[in-house]
Amino acid sequence: MENATLFMEFFGTKTPVLKVLDFLIDNEAFDHSKSDIARGAGISRATLFNIWSGIEGNGVVVATREVGRARMYKLNKKNPIVKKFMELDDVISDHYAPRAENEMLLTV
User: The dihedral of CA 80, 4, 1, 68: what is its sign?
Assistant: First the structure.
């Protein structure tokens, strides 16, 4: 993940779980394989596999289908904790919006 999202910038930390959560929130409309999630989150597959039991066990993701040998996962938007993280992501975006507008005006 080369460019930090507002979510990651706000927390000022780059823990693997937050990276995965950030990727899944930003790409909530799609399902992803574990390899895609690791790549999109900017972490190694080994790191993803180390934290996966907590992510899946806490209901952050749900399995959607199988493509060949790969199981696909999607953000579980029915999970109340996930809902709150998505709301928080929206609030963070709103918080940074005025600054982004000012930066855009300065570059024009």
Answer: positive
Contact 92, 7 (CB under 8 A): yes
> In the chain, what are the domain boundaries?
6-107
Q: Which residues 6+ apart lie within 8 Å of 93 measured at CB? A: 6
pTM, two decimals, is 0.78
The CATH class given to the 6-107 domain equals mainly alpha
Question: Amino acid identity of 29?
Answer: A
CA distance 16 to 22: 10
Q: Please give the Cα distance from 83 to 67 (Å, whole number).
A: 27
- The per-residue pLDDT for range 40-55, each reduced to its tens digit, is 999 999 999 999 999 9
- Is the separation of the CB atoms in 60 and 79 below 8 Å? yes
